[in-house]
Design a protein that fits this description.
Chain lengths: ~200, ~270
């Protein structure tokens, strides 16, 4: 089985959810606020307790140490957190990851962004930096929670383009959560509405 | 040389000072007078009772009495550490962890000291064992309680950050490492500071007591040095144990942060 599969995934009284996302495919999720879209992504990333299982290319989540699962199935939360004072300290990976400079420039940052103070970042800057922080680790699956919520229109298109290219080139499977159906119809091949007891295919045509 | 025995009148005079303080607290609206009087009375009654118990214990140096007494002291110390935490671990675990850490910080250290350093025969001689254990429990309790309280509070407050690090593929040790180290420092720094201040800024209570009791200052000092080292080691290892045990409980077998094992603080 190629890509990411959710099998009978249930948590916090929601579910069971079933979904297959092929490698290189982007699936959009929408739904009323509070229905549990974020929690669904968190269950897939295995940071909340859940029943059922997720598979990546046929390998069960439970068969992999949790930190490795989260490196392969990486979630970018809507609100990002930073724990050092300086931006660059969060990107110090001893050469294990890609050099973030290329991505940072594409997302409109200048060369000196690495020395910026975290406390001075705007919400939109945090959101873009958080995306870069995850992308440089080259995960096999991307779980994106409202990834462009605090960005201006121009930057929304840049991010959409960048992510589409990444999915196609790296064969990254992607789940994109958004309230914006128009955006989802642009970025995703299929869009589902998250209900508390399952997923319903949304007609975006 | 004999100690000058204090009469009930002498103690009443000292108590009068606290009564005056309570009155002052009432006049300037601090609202502490009730607690002050209750605590003062508790202290008097508890110490008088323990005096009677110790008098009996010293007269009958029975192994089982000493062990029973020690376990009573340990369970109370464990409860104190647990009760001082703002966000406690749910169920019996929290109490067991606190008591276990106090066991490491005090019991093990006191036992080693009695066997290896003091070398009193038999090792459970209550004149040595009980005061030594009491000093260790009382002094390591602060560090362990401080560190434990801070750990649960900090992890709760910084849950977003911890979870973000988990999402980026950190192990639970990496995700909570800075917080855990910070809490261990918080628990250990007071005793490190008081070692540095001993003799210069402060004359520690035990030594003062021994000198008042008629020991030569040099003997008193040697015992104080021993006690200080024991308290430092006990606090350190107790804090490390407590932090390790508590943080293990805060993450489940899939290294998820599980905060529902913490009780919300009573407001």
């Amino acid at each position: 089985m190629d890509g990411l599969s959710l099998v009978d995934l249930s948590f916090l009284g929601n579910g069971p959810y079933g979904l297959n996302v092929q490698s290189g495919e982007c699936v959009g999720l929408t739904g009323r606020s509070g229905v549990g879209k974020t929690q669904l992504l968190r269950a897939v990333a295995d940071v909340i307790a859940h029943k059922g299982d997720c598979f990546l290319n046929g390998t069960s989540c439970l068969a992999v140490p949790p930190q490795e699962w989260r490196r392969m199935v990486a979630m970018v939360p809507a609100e990002s957190f930073w724990w050092y004072d300086i931006v660059g300290d969060h990107f110090d990976s001893n050469g294990k990851h890609d050099d973030p400079i290329v991505l940072l420039e594409k997302l409109g940052f200048s060369q000196d962004v690495m020395s910026w103070q975290i406390s001075r970042l705007s919400t939109g800057e945090r959101q873009r930096l958080s995306l870069v922080r995850t992308l440089i680790t080259r995960p096999k699956v991307l779980l994106l929670d409202e990834p462009t919520a605090s960005l201006d229109k121009k930057m929304v298109h840049v991010v959409e383009g960048l992510l589409a290219k990444r999915c196609a080139q790296d064969k990254t499977a992607c789940i994109w959560v958004s309230h914006d159906l128009e955006q989802l119809s642009r970025v995703a091949e299929r869009v589902f509405r998250v209900e508390s007891d399952g997923l319903a295919l949304e007609d975006t045509q | 040389m004999n100690v000058i025995s204090l009469s009930a009148f002498d103690l009443s005079l000292a108590a009068l000072l606290v009564l005056m303080l309570a009155f002052t607290s009432f006049r300037i609206g601090l609202g502490l007078e009730k607690r002050m009087l209750i605590s003062g009375s508790r202290m008097t009654i508890q110490l008088l009772l323990i005096g009677i118990v110790l008098k009996y214990l010293f007269a009958n140096a029975n192994f089982f009495f000493v062990v029973f007494m020690s376990f009573c002291m340990l369970t109370i110390a464990g409860y104190e550490v647990w009760a001082r935490q703002k966000r406690k671990l749910r169920g019996r675990t929290g109490y067991l962890i606190s008591t276990g850490s106090m066991l490491v910080s005090s019991f093990v250290v006191a036992f080693l000291a009695l066997i290896l350093m003091v070398g009193v025969d038999p090792w459970y001689t209550p004149q040595y064992a009980i005061p030594l254990l009491g000093m260790l429990l009382g002094n390591t309790m602060n560090g362990v309680a401080l560190a434990s309280d801070r750990l649960t509070t900090e992890i709760y407050n910084q849950r977003g950050m911890v979870e973000q690090r988990l999402l980026l593929g950190d192990t639970w040790q990496e995700a909570s490492g800075e917080i855990r180290r910070d809490c261990m420092r918080t628990g250990m720094i007071p005793i490190i500071n008081s070692m540095a201040a001993a003799g210069v800024v402060s004359l520690p209570g035990m030594m003062t007591g021994q000198i008042l009791g008629g020991s030569s200052p040099l003997d008193a000092v040697k015992y104080q040095i021993l006690i200080m080292f024991l308290i430092a080691a006990g606090t350190g290892f107790g804090v490390v144990t407590a932090i390790w045990l508590i943080s293990r409980r805060l993450f489940d077998e899939r290294q998820r942060l599980v905060l529902d094992c913490l009780l919300s603080p009573k407001s």
